[in-house]
Amino acid sequence: xxxxxxxxxxxxxxxxxxVLSIYGQQASARLSKHxxxxxxxxxxxxxxxxxxxxxxxxxxxxxxxxxxxxxxLLTRAAHALLPSIRDGLKYAKAGLMxxxxxxxxxxxxxxxxxxxxEERGIGPLLEDVSRRFGRGSIGLGHAGIKSGLDWxxxxxxxxxxxxxxxxxxxxVKAA
Length: 175
Description:
Blueprint: E1 2-10, H1 13-33, E2 36-47, E3 59-68, H2 71-78, E4 91-103, H3 116-120, H4 122-133
Antiparallel strand pairs: 1-4, 2-3, 2-4
């Protein structure tokens, strides 16, 4: 599941397209990392239940033609949610859920059902560039590779992660 609450509400379908594109790429990378493919993708968005506004909880479930970890196919499937989005509503959260997970490469697809993007290695290429130049250095179309996106989750109240992130260790200097 890739789900985040936004720091600033997203009010347009274009804004949610960007969010879903990023989540589609992240989902692809995580599937590849674990050697898995997904057959079903569910995309969802939600307004805040705590705001005094009209509530909306659109979701769509997409059954993919074959199991895949391809970032293009996952992003395209996630965009199936966009026709359900009403501009003007303040969406506070969005996400993707991947189900019917299967090991990668168990059975090759029949010739007419092969995914042309997977053959070209676009997914591994995106992962290699991200690994070499950092996360967010490359993206698909609307994936918002620019930094400082308005909607990204607030992290100013997060606890320090000393045990998992070396760059956050406190530095002590003797005088």
